[in-house]
Design goal:
Layout: H1 6-13, H2 35-40, H3 49-53, H4 58-79, H5 82-85, E1 93-96, E2 100-106, E3 113-115, E4 118-119, E5 121-122, E6 127-133, E7 147-148, E8 150-152, E9 155-157, E10 164-166, E11 169-171, E12 196-200, E13 213-216, E14 224-225, H6 231-243, E15 247-253, H7 254-261, H8 284-301, E16 305-309, H9 317-333, E17 338-341, E18 362-366, E19 376-380, H10 386-395, E20 399-401, H11 408-415, E21 423-428, E22 431-436, E23 439-443, E24 450-454, E25 469-473, E26 476-481, E27 486-489
Parallel strand pairs: 10-14, 12-13, 12-20, 13-15, 15-16, 16-17, 17-18, 18-19, 19-20
Antiparallel strand pairs: 1-2, 2-6, 3-4, 3-8, 5-6, 7-11, 8-9, 10-11, 21-22, 22-23, 23-27, 24-26, 25-26
Helix pairs in contact: 1-4, 4-9, 8-9
Amino acid sequence: MNYIDQGTALSRKVPNRKLSKKNSLFYQQSVFENEEFMQKYEKNVDQLQTVIEEPELKEVIQNRNEKFFQVLEQIIKVESSIKEFAKGYQKYGFIVSDTGITYREWAPNAKELKLNEYGCTTDNGGNWEVFIPKDDDDNHQIQHGSKLITYCNEFERASVWSNVKKGEQAIFWNPDNRYEFQQKQLQQKQQSKGLKVIKQMITEVTEVIGYNTIMITQQLLMQLDINQITPDNLKKNIDIVHDKGFSVIMEIDHELIKNYLSNWDGSAFQYLKEGMDQLDYGKWEVLRLLLSNISYWITEYQIDGFKFSNIDIQDDIDAAVYLMLANDLIHDLLPNGISIIQDLDYPVLCRTIKEGGLGFDFRLSKLQHKQFQPKTLFENNGVYTQAQILNALAIGSGLIQTVMDDKIVQFEQQCGWLEEEQTDVHEVDQIIQIKRGKFIFLINHTNQNRETILNFKIKKILNKEDQKWEQLDENTVKLIIESEQGLIIE
């Protein structure tokens, strides 16, 4: 069966559609003539700040932005806005109403589709649907907590749009009472100098001294596994950490999603590129699913941001456009939200879309002492040297930390994180010297002990009480810094 691009097909059907002010910011005949659009985006590539500063990037940014605006215009023509497009979870999966339950799934290769014993019908565009009315006693025919099995051809599947699962099994979740949030989402933008992230299991969303952001473990799309935690308990946990001033972010692992979606309807190219083992970010329903995943967690669970992992955009312009749309959506739904991208050799990841970038707040780097760029996060999985860990602390651009009892927590508390202090970085005798407020960090990334002479007086060394130094005169000292070690001097 050939893939039907629903976005293109639908946009062709509505070329003269009148978009009212009520349902769209972009209601003029040409969406790109709207004043609010022009305030948010810049179409003239020569006016982009990144191109003005780095003209050698013009071609790659121009090609990417042209595709971005093509997709954006298509979304607006069909759905009126990215926010509406990203409400797929209100259209697909299991939609409960006062009269019954509607189940919808996109499965273009299916010859037959059933939900439990209920047969679905198709619109011949890949969408399948069944409505299950309430019984004569005004009760839903599927009870809360029941198993939901989608029979797609000869396969048994859990709906791609499942919200609740028990292991691999989709569950119909419709309790009489649901937990209502007491707190609000992120109220103040976490600055690059002050973002400190601790990774925790989704069942362990608790306060950790020295951090201001918690990253909970990746869930598979919108699917919360009740073997780990129920929706109500997760909401309660998020409420608790929001009440303490913490932000809560979630990782989106595109490799995990790709593996789950592969061959869902029996074809190799439903959600994946035909002949390739990667998500097809240029497909309408792939974009709808991925963007709806973001919208769902922000709207339903008050997630404050996301870390995007395992996505290769080097040779995939569609993937880059998806990330631009994702950032646009995040900061539209949640102006103070956080978006983080893994370390990629790709230009202007952390510039705004209007400046010509992809719109991320932070890029995630391994702990390397040459990474002095702003908006950088450093990842520590417990195997890095003391020099690398201190480097992340000293630069102050943030840290994603796995080990909860690491001494860096103590250093952060002692230094007060220096959130408002400027950072001065230079190198002397192969020792990186980083000055931050009243503290100086001396970091030796080499595999040899290094002797250095410093033109200041040492009052106190915070992290190594037995460190020796020689006072040459009142304002000059000589000391040796061991290989892959560092000192915090006050």
